């Protein structure tokens, strides 16, 4: 007789300041483990571009490097989590960023019998962040991330992933706004390290090394947390 195996989808959180490598690593984990990357930054930028109500309310905070209000971000995340593809398991990139968001996530997951497998803190020096963020650009076609010094396409001007040649930079990736974003991280997001530690869900990784070395360490953490 076959016994149906009940599995709940994995939920992983990547915590870390702007430029820590959350997006870069989330995309690699997405490919390796078949999970879905949920970036609230991407969802908000999309809402701004489409000029939805939420997007219009979020824009000023994003431009200045502050956090968008919890109610807007939680609503966007809740809608995205309800989509079918999230049944594969998710990597949250840039959410939660406040204690209110973390509590809302616990409630949301509780409603569907899910739990957080691990909240992984990408630990980096503030000094490196300005350089990482200032040199960041992405492929407009597929979203692959690049860096002027640290991660260039194999052929200059051509995306490794999709062959596209339309690259873009974020308006908020400038030296002035990065300061405000780092401040928001330390004041409002860093306390989540203690929040998840208290729940025995916290894992830390040194994120100052090579992209590929960090990816290896993260994969081992994810394997352990989803076994
Ligand atoms: P986040 O999503 O945390 O803001 P990203 O993944 O977008 O960060 O990375 C920020 C920039 O730094 C990108 O241009 C990326 O290519 C680059 N980057 C990511 N990880 C590293 C690393 N370990 N070393 C050097 N540069 C990195
Ligand atoms: P970063 O590269 O700084 O990690 P993101 O793409 O995650 O950037 O976020 C860009 C901006 O979108 C943030 O500076 C903030 O204004 C807004 N944002 C993204 N996620 C959240 C969130 N969970 N809560 C509040 N604001 C958010
Ligand atoms: Zn591409």
Structure report:
The chain has 227 residues and is an alpha/beta fold. Helix content is 47%, strand content 15%. A five-stranded parallel beta sheet has the order 2-3-1-4-8, sandwiched between helices. It has a three-stranded antiparallel beta sheet with strand order 6-5-7. Strand 5 and strand 6 form a beta hairpin. The relative contact order is 0.19. The model has no long low-confidence stretch (mean pLDDT 95). It binds adenosine-5'-diphosphate (2 copies) and zinc ion (ZN). The site of one adenosine-5'-diphosphate (ADP) has 18 residues, from helix 1, strand 6 and helix 9.
Trace the largest sheet across and list its strands: 2-3-1-4-8
Shape call? globular
First-to-last CA distance: 25 Å
Bound molecules: adenosine-5'-diphosphate, zinc ion
Low-confidence region ranges: none
**Derived structural class:** alpha/beta
